[in-house]
Design goal:
Length: about 300
């Protein structure tokens, strides 16, 4: 009873790690042998046992010339120390199992404009949070066949993903607008209406899907003659606008975060598409896929919220 009373009165006031010193000394009969087992010095073992006795206010061992022998109180407390050691081992084993379960490769596909801008810091933080997961990034506007295993997770810009067995979550807007650099605006002025754009240098192009929509928009607004150069990719459009070469349509989630760029026109709500995280239903509960989806969703939703607040 006295031993139990000591535990209750001092609950939470001793170092749980010291329980392993109690177990090792009780098992080996000496602080020297216990130190060898635990990989520490004999002095450290003796000091930790003494600290545990002081914290619990009990004498755990009789110190004899022949070695350490458990007292009655120590004998009564030994099962609890063994239970603590077993619990610690179980925790370590569970953590190792979880780490193995969330490890492995995740094939992630997205458009290059997002991969090269907003995704880069997300990927850095993801690697720090999940070092056992290796992201294999496929930067393309092509729709990889998730059902056939061409990728595990996709970030798609569309109105709504379609396809058998696909599971999708909308994480951000894919609104686009027209941007120029601050240097360009200082030199050429800032276009504020679509009519103003006719007097400016326009940069066209983008990936095939983007290029088609962009050309249709230019044609509707009679701006095709103002296009002075074209790039094959949206990253090329961004680079040209950053350099002050002209004005171009860019995704707001990307361009609004560029301190050197100015949005010229508001985006049209009816033209707004979404950014969707997509996977196949057979993969959604795989630990490494779930971890990837949850992390990306949290960060992209937060970026969208920042853009909205701004």
């Amino acid at each position: 009873m006295r031993a139990r009373s000591a535990i209750v009165q001092n609950r939470g006031m001793f170092d749980w790690n010291d329980a392993r010193y109690l177990v090792a000394v009780a098992d080996t009969g000496s602080t020297l042998a216990a130190g060898h087992r635990l990989g520490v010095s004999q002095t450290t073992v003796a000091r930790r046992v003494a600290a545990l006795e002081a914290a619990l206010r009990v004498t755990l061992f009789d110190r004899r010339a022949s070695g350490y022998r458990l007292t009655d109180q120590g004998q009564a407390l030994l099962p609890h120390a063994l239970a603590l050691a077993a619990a610690a081992d179980g925790l370590a084993d569970a953590a190792a199992t979880e780490a193995r379960a969330t490890g492995g490769a995740v094939r992630l596909t997205m458009g290059e404009i997002y991969a090269a801008t907003v995704f880069a810091p997300i990927a850095r933080d993801f690697q720090r949070a999940f070092p056992a997961i290796r992201l294999e990034l496929d930067t393309t506007d092509a729709l990889r066949d998730l059902a056939a295993g061409a990728a595990d997770v996709a970030l798609r810009a569309c109105r709504r993903p379609s396809g058998g067995g696909l599971v999708a979550r909308r994480v951000a807007s894919d609104a686009w607008s027209v941007y120029c650099s601050r240097d360009y605006a200082a030199e050429r002025g800032l276009p504020r209406t679509r009519r103003d754009l006719a007097g400016h240098v326009l940069i066209g192009g983008g990936e095939p899907g983007i290029r088609r929509h962009y050309r249709e928009w230019l044609a509707r607004n009679d701006l095709e003659a103002a296009v002075a150069m074209e790039h094959d990719t949206s990253v090329g459009l961004l680079a040209a606008v950053r350099a002050g070469a002209g004005v171009a349509a860019l995704p707001c989630l990307v361009a609004d975060r560029e301190p050197g760029l100015i949005r010229c026109l508001p985006h049209a709500p009816h033209e707004e598409r979404g950014l969707w995280l997509v996977t196949h239903e057979r993969l959604r509960h795989v630990p490494r896929i779930r971890a990837t989806l949850d992390f990306l969703a949290e960060r992209l939703v937060a970026l969208q919220a920042e853009a909205t607040d701004g």
